[in-house]
Queue: 2 jobs
Job 1
Amino acid sequence: MKYAKIVLSVVVILSVTFMVSCKNVSDKPNTPKEPELSNKFDGTFVAVNGLFGDLPFIGYGMNNLLEKVTGEKRARPHYVSGRIAMELLTAHRDGTLKHPLVLVGHSLGGNAVTDIAYILGKEGVVVDYMVVVDAPVPREIGSNVRDVTNFLCSKLSCVGVPLNKGEEFTYDVDHIPLGNDERLHRYIFKKLNLKYKD
């Protein structure tokens, strides 16, 4: 009889524990799902190369990124940043500018995208995401830029400086290869909710 009471007590305790644990599982709040990744970017994506970026052995990083995101093969040169800003402003004014608007620039192209964002900000145009890659003299990032990431490198050839806002990552690579660094490309794809393309 004594053993029967002990066994019954253990069964009751285990049953109560099981019911409580089941209740806690069902009462847990829904955890947010990971965003579904897309195969296609549906917005405006501008990639800008730096000095001598037209040369394939220098501008390959932004060219490769642009092709992965949009299918286009050539990033814009930094020296046409004024023209790029005017094209974006025109699209904004006539209602054809697709958001999210993403600006990505490497080296002098990084300087250029900060200039483009500044010009757009004067007209109230929001830049949804901006990536600055080892830019030597970037402009201060304005309030019209919702999100910004600064990628720097740590080798002797590196020229980038910190920005006044946003996330910052430093990789132990040289200046030119940084633009094509897979970690950088993967991070941008993640920010854009895109499936990464090797």
Note: Residues 44-191 form a domain with the Rossmann fold fold (CATH 3.40.50.1820).
Job 2
Amino acid sequence: MFNRCLFVIKFFHNFLKFSYFCDFSKRVKSNGTLDIHQLNPHTDLDTVSQFCQWQVEDSGPKEELIRLCIASIASAGVYLDDDLVSWAITTANGTINMLYTKETHRGQGLAELTMQSLAQINGTYGLHSITHVLTDNIASQKLMAKLGLLYTHKLYWVDLF
């Protein structure tokens, strides 16, 4: 069983778009060329799978689930000089999941940029931005609060089989 905190975004998508284009990208500390766009299941799958902590025993290979999410649902990747350094995906249940920034690029605001970008992409599809954070992941909880996501309740995942 995993304890997770559920956060939901409390701003309208127009505000997110405004925030992203007006002042958010100025807070990113980077010495290279940044590019932000949806993930590519052909070129980004290996990187995302390598760092994924999903445990999917009965659902098939995790790589296939990740590929399906990237190919058919919203995702966001931050590329520094064409290297994928931060990413998140929207899963089939509509939640933002798998937020990850490579350790060598942490502390530069890239996870924040990734979440802002994915929230904006989700908005273009009419999706609300909802995410789960493990209760012991204080850094992610602080990031979600900084982004304006509102903690709503604890969620318990139970393996029934």
Note: Residues 7-27 have pLDDT under 50 and may be disordered.
